[in-house]
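$ run holo --ligand "zinc ion" --emit tokens
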Amino acid sequence: MKLIPLPAFSDNYIWLLHNGHHAVVVDPGASQPVLDALVREQVQLEAILVTHHHADHTGGIDAIRQATGATVYGPARESIPAPLVKRSGGDAVTVLDLAFHVIDVPGHTAGHIAYYCPAVNLQPLLFCGDTLFSGGCGRLFEGTPEQMLASLTTLSELPNDTQVCCTHEYTLANLKFAREVEPDNQALRDYQHYCQGLRSKALPTLPSTVGQERTINPFLRTHTPSVIASVLRYDASAVELHGVFASLREWKNIYR
Ligand code: ZN
Ligand code: FE
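-- output --
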């Protein structure tokens, strides 16, 4: 199995997974990067997986479906270009002979779903859209902080070696904020240097892993003393009113 992030727009990745013959893509916001990659890799598109309804994840669906006849799977509770095979938490999607588990991860949008396969090339694989980013998490457009925290907690409980395939190259900006929150986290400092090296060569910082994120991502660490202390220092009254996670998300929203 080959896993390739196809760059789109300014900072999106459309994930392509193929076995040398057949392929799936995840969240194709644009069609051309996908159609070009199918020719380049000489594979036939079997399916499109969609995590949520935003245009930068769905804009290429119609053109790709028309060109390839691929089946489209997506969140049951969101409006995605039809025909759609609707999926929600607890369902399965079998593509490329791989069984993906569907997980409900509301927060960024109300019906956002993620796709998890326990073994792709012997390693677990997660397509999580705009829920969990490397070093950060999606903005709360439709869900509550409680929902997002529950969704991120579910994802953080996946095996440590799970490859995290999120949809945006936001890592360096996220890590800059993470360093502000946890200046003494040595693993975070090391990871920032590593990612800066990748980006200076125009390489993707993704996929990350669940184990890595548990160590460096403040949004998975709102139970740790260092993150709690830092958010309290930033706005103790917000923490009292809304809790650590919501206050951390608010802080990130206005951080530059
Ligand atoms: Zn989105
Ligand atoms: Fe997005």
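-- notes --
Residues 54, 56-57, 130, 167-168 surround fe (iii) ion (ligand 2) (CB under 6 Å).
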